[in-house]
Amino acid sequence: MTDHDEHAGPPGSATQAxxxxxxxxxxxxxEMLGSAADAEDVLQETWLRWADVDLAAxxxxxxxxxxxxxxxxxxxxxxxxxxxxxxxxxxxxxPLLTTPDVxxxxxxxxxxxMAMLLVLETLQPAERAVFVLREVFELDYxxxxxxxxxxxxxxxxxxxxxxxxxxxxxxxxxxxxxxTRAALLAFQRAVETGELxxxxxxxxxxxxxxxxxxxxxxxxxxxxxxxxxxxxLLAAGWWKHDAxxxxxxxxxxxxxxxxxxxxxxxxxVVAVRVENGYVTGAYHVRNPDKLARMGxxxxxxx
Length: 302
Prior knowledge:
alpha+beta, 302 residues, 6-stranded mixed beta sheet, 6 strands
């Protein structure tokens, strides 16, 4: 365990098994919730339940732990849905500063990307759980059925619907990390020099820009759609009101992203969705409650 070792309880095989699978369990919970803070809470609830389990009756520790974390995440996901209804402005996933090796696992990197997490937000809770467990973590239908409390045949139907739903909304066309990096470097140049043309050249006509301040920081209260509207927003030079702004290219959610600092303090994160070389989605997270993990890398795995 990394953040909450003091709650791990006495040493023993239960603790060792939990620690061995902790990064996997965090990743499952995070992909289901889009919130690292809530994923950490789910891990604490999972540990409390795991500590009471008779290990002699457990055939496969990984599957059993995934079952517990899935059930806890489903409960939390339903509560989150109610919380988002009163959220100020657009809700974006909590960004993670990820290790460079995540990008080497293309499927994992896509599954934790801001763009994919926003697609997963459009699924019903059970659909999201089934999609994540099947498509990302490759659990069999019987295991998933136990985790979500449905029959294997019902899970197959849910998986089919979820796959079709995601396929219709996921980014189209092949995009390399180099294309994403180039788009973000153009944004970085625009901020640092005020030169917008290289950035406008990589924006798609139907680009959607979202920013999340959570009512705590100035942000767009609704999506800005279309290159003309986004261009006007950029031309207004919203960043020029701040004296000392720096922009650093980092790994955000398994791909290139920008970390923005003002007077040395982390102010926000910018991630993009790139399709066929053009930016179709721009996501700017400024809510300080969602930037708490930006000071350290988070390990995600499967």
